[in-house]
Specification:
With 100 residues, the protein is an alpha+beta fold. The protein folds into 2 domains: 62 residues, Orthogonal Bundle (Arc Repressor Mutant, subunit A), CATH 1.10.10; 31 residues. Helices cover 55% and strands 15% of the residues. It has 4 helices and 3 strands; from the N terminus they run αβααββα. A 3-stranded antiparallel sheet has the order 1-3-2. β2 and β3 form a beta hairpin. α1 packs across α3. It is globular and about 45 Å long. About 18% of the residues have low confidence.
């Protein structure tokens, strides 16, 4: 019996190597797993935002890696810490019921 993590890892590796594909193509690539095992793993990966599962036609599913948003400009630790620190100070004063 195979672990669910193993199936998911193999799906992610195939998508990185081969690119987007249909669920049937993925099942063909992963011959050691059943259609149900592959679909269940893709469903879990989709719910965890690691892959996108699209249903473009009545009987077909299309799988691709999820798009990872990238910041337009790098955020330095000091700038990020300062920005967050201000937000937490505001929350603290609001909770206490005092005004800044």
């Amino acid at each position: 019996m195979t672990s669910t993590g193993e199936v998911e890892k193999n799906i992610l590796q195939d998508l990185e190597r081969l690119g987007p594909c249909s669920i049937e193509e993925m099942v063909t690539h992963l011959q050691g797993y059943t259609w149900n095992q592959v679909f269940s793993a893709v469903d879990r990966l989709s719910r965890n935002a690691k892959v996108m599962l699209q249903h473009p036609s009545r009987f077909g599913y299309h799988i691709s890696l999820a798009q990872v948003p990238r910041p337009s400009a790098p955020v330095t630790e000091a700038a990020g810490s300062h920005h967050l620190a201000g937000r937490f100070d505001q929350v603290r004063t609001t909770v206490r019921g005092t005004e800044p």
